[in-house]
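ERR on first pass: missing label on line 2. Operator R.T. fixed the label and resubmitted. Corrected input:
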Amino acid sequence: MTSFILRRLGLSVVLLFIISIVSFFIVTLTPGSPYPWGELNPKISAEVKANFRKKFHLDRPLHEQYALIMRDLFTGDLRSIKDDRPVMSRIMERLPATLALNFTAILISLSFGTLLGVYAARNAGRWQDMAGSFIAFLFIALPSFWISYLLAIVLVKGFHVPILGTHSYGIEFSNPFAAGLDTLWHLLLPATVLAIGGIAAQSRYLRATMIGTLREDYIRTARAKGLAEETVLYKHALRNSIRPLVTGIGMLLPALISGAVIVENIFAYPGMGRLGYEAVLERDYPTLVALNFVVAALVLLGNLLSDLLYAAVDPRVRLE
Amino acid sequence: MRTLRLFLFGIPAALLVLLVAAFVNATFLSVAKKNEMSIGTLGEPSTLNPIQQADSASSQVGGLIFNGLIKYNQNLEIVGDLATKWELSQETTFQFATEEEARKANFTLGTILTRPLPFEDTLQGNALILRLKEPGNKLSEDLLGELMSDGHHPLPFPPLEPGGKERPFKAEPIIRFTLRDGVRWHDGAPFTSADVAFTYRAIMNEKVASPRRSDFDLVDSVETPDPRTVVVRYKKPFSPALLSWMTAILPEHLLGKLDPARWPEAYNRAPVGTGPFKFGEWKTNEFIRLKKNPDYFLGSPWLDSVVFRVLPDPLTLQLAFQTRQVDFWNVDPWAVKGLQGDQRFDLFSAPGNAYNYIGWNLRRPMFQDLKVRQALAQAVNVPQMIKYILYGHGVQSTGIFTPQMWFFDPLVKPLSHDPEAAKKLLDEAGWKPGADGIRVKEGKRFSFTLLANNGNEVRRDIATLVQDDLKQVGIEVKVEIYEWAVLLKRFVNKGEFDAIVLGWGLGYDFDQYSIWHSSQTHPEELNFVGFSNTKVDHLLTDLRQEYARPEIIRLAAELQQTIYGQQPYLFLFVPEGTEVMWKGAYRLRHPGPDGTWIDEPVHMTKAGWSYDMEWFYRPEYPPTAKANSITR
Amino acid sequence: MSTVTATIPETPTARVLKRFRADPMARVSVVIIILFALLAGGTALLSCTGVNWPYDPNLTSLEQKLLPPSPSHWLGTDNLGRDVLSRMLHGASISLTVGLIAVAVSLGIGVVVGAVAGYFGGKVDQILMRSVDALLCFPTFFLILTAVALLGPSLINIVVVIGLVSWTGTARLVRGEFLTLRETEYVKSARVLGQRAWTIITRHILPNAAAPILVTAVLGIPDAILSEAGLSFLGFGVQPPQATWGNIIADGKTYLLDGWWLILFPGLAILVASLSFYLAGDALREAAESRS
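pass 2 clean. output:
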């Protein structure tokens, strides 16, 4: 077990470095360079620009830049080109909000997705199943920006409900209960939009696995033994179809972080997706390298955790 | 199994209940009306250190936290901010081979000129130092002429820049600022001239990487003879110099001994200034909150706090405004009409300080003929663009200055929209219609690529309309849209493009040397179209040395006319900006010129609608006369 | 009394198609897909001959900007006065082209990688699959932006780029199929007989893996369409004046509260088109996998 973990960790570290190298070179080779002064500004002299380039090592050859950035990353000294602040503080500021958003989205996806999936598997072949499939595919086919804007129109024009940021302006002056619900609202709205695709994916995956499981011999035996359908369904079939629930987490994470770019922008939610999008537009190389690193690390960690969970849940699985 | 079912149904049910509860709560939210102003900003400030940033988001916030030595008032006249008085003078120095010669020259001047003398003279060894009442070259040149015609030959001074010309005399303008008394920093420390001197040193410090450095290149020295006086000496006459002292002043006692590398975490995100509002809190990507400074030298502001909410795009800003999450909204032209009749809002409109244009790359042979450029200008229907893209909210541009500027020449007439005239001009220039309708000259088709940046609908719409208009006169235009960073690096900075749709956002000063002088055409410089005109070059350098207002107006008018005539750009339009406010949300109570308070509704001034924003108040929290007495 | 009827045994493909046809949702989605294809193809053909129906999609007419749906403009006009219906029809051909070509690219890469990994196994498999894992760690949007910026925002480049980031699913699937099919009797005999790997892969294994691959293909088309819409929304899609469904929405979002038709109709089109492909693909998968 420990050797497995160690080997996986080692492999992950190697992967992380490869990812960081590739992402660095991709971004720096993209046309366009950092220009943190907004529009073309008559006040910025060539000298200022030269100083700026020197400060961020932009005048060195690429491999040197990479080495310098990695060194700074690990000494904690890496600074963002945009505002000269340590990159890690910029990322850490956004991390709680991102984790909250993604965790909630995953929770919504898994819980509703499982429910839907079980319902569909239970009624496999009948109209309820077809309705379930239809709804699932409807969710997957829904463009996130479209539904976000439609929601925005309805909520703002129809109900005058604030939808932006992590809390409503002025909420600090209401009672704690209302404030708490307000924060919840601002979290649940974007999380739900993000989770729509996840619900569909989860339900399809679970349904497929459960239908497969339900065909197994031991299920037939259980039914023959006279067990109630409920028990069969939940105690046996569902438990053995737990894998999608677990691997689902590992798979959803990178999709969520990049999918969140659009949703975070529309709802002005301060997460890492928005940070990454802005950093790409501004060619903020240090932030991008660090962000990629953090995201990749999270994903690899998530995968490791889900594999471990899978092993814990299913004794048949042997980690090699 | 029970537990499994509990989880399976329970969690979704709980989430649903929470969602509904949260939604209901949100609809009934009655946000307590605080005494706080909420402003939406599209870009998040990168730093609140005013000498290290140049983006408008940062300066909007910085404007409430800091003061400069001088500022513009609502009529765009220069008034004192941290300085109460400023005197301009100049020291012109002639040097001679011997002391004797210097004395003789001094004597000559004393006899030739009529009394009273326009200067105070001092002899220092072999140098004759004249203290003139006003800066500028003209008087000094006249005096030089008098001396030389009388047989005196002053020795030249070495050039100011390597490779430059020798100077027959040294002309050093001097500005003497008298600072306001009793001003304190937000942390209580007293404001003195040391802070001004420090600010200058910081701006010039390489490690600080200040974008304002070029404004202070010509400063020779900054002296502080006493805590209330600052004397700035320049190397040569440079009229925009005074305006550079509108820059915010930084606290020497906090930053003087601190290595600039430590500024971002120690100061830039929690700045200390002298302004009407103090820094309160900054939640990245969400908001910046400022609290009132009760000890502000003009008196405490009426608002308790101001919050800048960071919103990523104009649509979000609109949504925030509709739900009263922000109090103001800079509305796009197409929406103005719908809002004008709406009784719930107050609207403020004024032409902005920016103009949009199409830059022709003058290095491309097809754009080198003036007739062609005039034809292009007449082929494009600018009035229609204003009507349909700006919905009428704009004026056609007549050159490099905008109507709000005091040196703008209203007599320059824009070229008319006349496709027939355009066709004739093109014919005359040798471009005849080809087989497919596109004009041809010497075997080359008149076809070019027009670039614009993505994310800007106005420019994109301009490109599409120009494409159509030019097709009508037989010119083929291909439109390509790129991301801003790519546009700059790949095309603009290298000067490798055909034509590009852009805009200039200008300050209120007349110095456009960096955009139009022929020496500024290298990669990464701002004269990226490659414009070179000797007359314009002279006008630009003359303007920089001219201090007299009527002269400036004359030179500026000539500059504007000449450049417009040359059409290096297709000057499009000056958009009008409109700001919307929920009706009566704020009123203005500000110090009047004669020591009383003036209470009036928020209105449009030459300097914009938000001039004196620190004196806004909410009618629910009326200012009491006792709360403030006008100071100095 | 039982009658013995001699029937020609059905081929697996025929069986699959029969089951497919039996599913009502599948029938409806195929009808919709054919409808889209006809509209898109028809519009493309007509514009090649110079005819534009109902209007020229690029004709700007500033007097008629932002008109809501009316008898003369069934789906309204945009901010430059261009007819939304015409733009959507032309956009249909772009969207469908993007879907098809992107899927072709991703299939091409995915099948090759998966086949090699699945057939040869061992070290090769490990390396290839680890690379797939690494690729999955990348935020795809960022890769797409970079590539589009590098290569320039043309239709071809966008399509290729979308294909390049979406082949991993196919690769995994194909590898799985190959791992299983490699152990079947006839493959084993083929190897014993000394046939070359290439022949075995193409002649024996691929045809049997065809069904799942086809399913992935059909399910990949709407993914590509949605990616293109997302790209256009963020500003990195196909350039003006060419219309795509995504870029009509992107252009229209500024007028959100006053021009709802600019958002609603293209979005609905994307939704319906994607949904049809998903339903069809899913039905295909059911038909291929079912054991009846």
